[in-house]
Amino acid sequence: MKKHSVKVALLFVVVVILAGFSFVSCGSDSGEGEGESDGDTPDGDGGADGDESGDGDVDGSENGDGDTEWPIDGDYDVDTSALALNEVDCQGRDWVEIYNRSDEEIDISSWLVADDLDKSGHQYAIPSGTKIAAGGFYTAEQEDTEEAGFSFGIKCGADLVYLVAPGGAVVDQTSVPDLPDDTTWGRLPDGSGSWQQTIPTKNEANRVSDTPVDPDMLFDPLNVYTVELTLSEDAESDLTSDPYEYTQADFKFIPKDGTEITLEGVGVRLKSGSSYEPLTGKAAFKVRFDKYDEYLKLYGLKNITLNNMVEDQSMMHETLAYRIFRAAGVPAPRTGYAWVKVNGEDFGLYVVVEKYDDVFAEEYFDSTQHIYEGSGKDLQTGLVSQFEIDEGDEIDTSDLQALIAAINNSSQGEWFNEVSAVADLTEMTRMWAVEDSINHFDGYTMARNNYFLHSDDSGKFSMMPWGADRAFAADSGSEPEYSIMLAKCLLSSECKARYDAEKLALEGVISSIDIDSWLGEIDGVIKSYVEADERKPYSVQDYETALQALKDYY
């Protein structure tokens, strides 16, 4: 997230005493001019709110009170109110939680949650008949296509949020700071404590994270966590009749130490390819957290793949292969391990693989125009329409057309220069060198399969590996039938020299990894899970033999 700022003109209002009653009218001008953004915009549209203060207050004001004139028709003791703002989520589908710190139920009909006291469109009236139990919570949420709610957006680092009693008295307010992904702004303890960074606990007691809010924890091969998928009868039927189409499921992440996270209504489908297994076997899963709710993520991630490793008896091919790719400087997914349960039934040990999407691209590239999936097809003329578009414009594929044209239409003498204009051949030859080293016979270079293409805003491409569960295969002794890019590269003196240099450099990369020791560490962590996995289609002895073969590979 990028920081925004708010400039709020705030003035203190005098206390008016009439007929023995005290009423305080508080307000604020959020500083948003006509036509300026008021929703969740990651970059703030150039600082639409214009705040230059750390807490939204200016001119020495300590509480953000302003000069808005409200109709004063309620009798509320602001200083001793039992209601308080308790937690604010300014990421994704925004929400504001209210806490009742009294020992009595309170009717909060027509109270307001607002981020601007001057604009009716930034004020949400709580529905009639809404009550909060003693010590209980109520959460107002941003509207979406299926559910009503408040129409404004709360900007992290840019907005104040108000709780307003009927009649206009501001009971509570907070200035929401810039926050890391998957965190909220909450009080500890509930209702009365200081505001601080918390983890999302909608309608539950606030707490700080027991685990780091970082996807790295998902991709530590020396730490096995549990993933539970809950499928309805309809979802099970969907995955049986149409396994490659997404259906809804509930997803629970259970670390060995730390806080469980439950995400309801994620997208789940079975993984296709040669490792396909039905639900009755050891099915592999693709999980899209944001499939049905664009704001739903797990530690900032939109996707993961749960691979069943039915074709990898060592259960470490992907983990080692992608580590070598990354060490060599090739963008490649991270991996971890999970024990997977489906509807309470043990499905066994899975490798968790990071997915290529815009979240991944932000970590490796300065810009992203497209991410294409190249499964079972080469970069040949006439095949553009067969590439699956995972990110980017689904209509304009001129970048991929330009790449394919350069590959296929350039003469041998001009091939390197022409293709270099639309492809990072240093990165690509490095990837091909790794594929050759790990004998990834099901990858791009030898099978024209299992690869992704990333293009930046200038239309320049990088290539990324996939499907490494079948790598480290024994040498067949036959000459490989290379893909079109590598075949043409080897015919170009400049490109071949680059490829040979990358192969030579790779020897140092591999020698820098203590492969035997590292695989031994992983074995010490996952061995008990391997033994308990009753759905794997091989024995524990097969696992031990395959692991030793992997250690001996280099």
What's the main sheet like? Answer: 7 strands, mixed, barrel
User: Helical amount among residues, as a percent range?
Assistant: 10-25%
Q: Strand pairing plus helix content: what structural class? A: alpha+beta
Please give the count of helices.
11
Low-confidence stretches: 1-80
Morphology call: globular
| Rg (C-alpha, Å) | 28 Å
> What number is the mean pLDDT?
85
Oligomer: single chain
Main-sheet strand order equals: 14-15-16-17-18-20-19
Task: Note the gap between the termini.
Answer: 42 Å
Q: What is the percentage of strand-forming residues?
A: 15-25%
Task: Give the tags.
globular; five-stranded antiparallel β-sheet; 554 residues; seven-stranded mixed barrel; alpha+beta; 11 helices; 22% helix
Topology (elements, then pairings):
Blueprint: E1 16-18, E2 21-23, E3 83-89, E4 95-100, E5 106-107, E6 112-114, E7 123-125, E8 131-132, E9 137-141, E10 159-164, E11 170-176, E12 184-188, E13 194-198, E14 224-230, H1 233-241, E15 247-254, E16 261-270, E17 285-288, E18 303-307, H2 317-328, E19 335-342, E20 345-354, H3 358-364, E21 370-374, E22 388-392, H4 398-409, H5 415-420, H6 425-437, H7 444-447, E23 451-455, E24 461-465, H8 484-491, H9 493-511, H10 515-532, H11 540-552
Parallel strand pairs: 14-19
Antiparallel strand pairs: 1-2, 3-4, 3-12, 4-9, 5-8, 6-7, 6-10, 10-11, 12-13, 14-15, 15-16, 16-17, 17-18, 18-20, 19-20, 21-22, 21-23, 23-24
